[in-house]
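If you are new to this repository, start here. Below is one unmodified record pulled from the training split, so you can see the exact layout before writing a loader.
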Amino acid sequence: MIDSFTKASGYAFLSNFHPSTIYVNGKSYATVEHAYQAHKAADESSHEFIRNSSTPAEAKKLGRGVGLRPDWEKIKLDLMRTFIRKKFENPFLRPLLLDTGEAKLVYGNTWNDRFFGVCRGSGDNWLGRILMEVREEARHEDSL
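And here is the target side for that same chain:
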């Protein structure tokens, strides 16, 4: 099991804060976190402000205060899947994901994110689950 996506663990590349430019609808985002938080915004100016924020932490903070688009709860997991897939199209990151083998990926955290992760033994671990889905898809694509 890999339950820490930090530099110290050697698995920081699994974090949504890891520098990994992705492109969505012709726009670049410095990290998956930037893309995810920007796509929460109900208006284009907020989206762009978040997209252009200087760090993923700043993007996350801004995303917490933005007016949510009305369909957010319905689309947020599909968007995360899309962004994670795009991240691991990167020829430097894809092999790192594949090198995690069959390890269970758990987004362990101490800040009570029980939707995307697991905190104090409890959580849905959606980020870990999506990473494992994308890893399996990549393994399948690479075997063709």
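Two things worth knowing about this chain: The domain at 12-143 is CATH 1.10.357.40 (Tetracycline Repressor; domain 2). The longest helix spans residues 126-143.
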